Amino acid sequence: MPLKRTVKDLVMEASARIRTIPMDDAETLLDDPETLFVDIRDVRELDREGMIPGAYHAPRGMLEFWVDPESPYHKPVFASGKSFVLYCGGAWRSALATAALQDMGLEPVAHMEGGFVAWKAAGKPVVPRPTKD
Length: 133
Prior knowledge:
Layout: H1 7-15, E1 20-21, H2 23-28, E2 35-39, H3 43-49, E3 56-57, H4 63-67, E4 83-87, H5 93-104, E5 109-112, H6 115-121
Helix pairs in contact: 1-5
């Protein structure tokens, strides 16, 4: 059975209605205490490749549950009033996630152009995933 819409279609539709922050602009937000970078990649990707300094890890599969204050899985960081910049490996998952969170009413939320692969290739700062004590 052929699909009605492909993942590429969904990402293009999401990208047309969300805010995408250029990578260099995103880097200038690293020191902004009112901006939180949210890494939605799988923990294995973080272990293998590192992450953006100061980023908060919220796995893609739990993101909507962590954002929703009525969910038993809610994380208070998402009710902090900060601006959120989502990123994944190649900016596809983060485009879809940003659209979903925007639809939920989380504001302001955006995603980073190019994702972590482009960030790392451009020589931007990367740190190992923090270990849990």
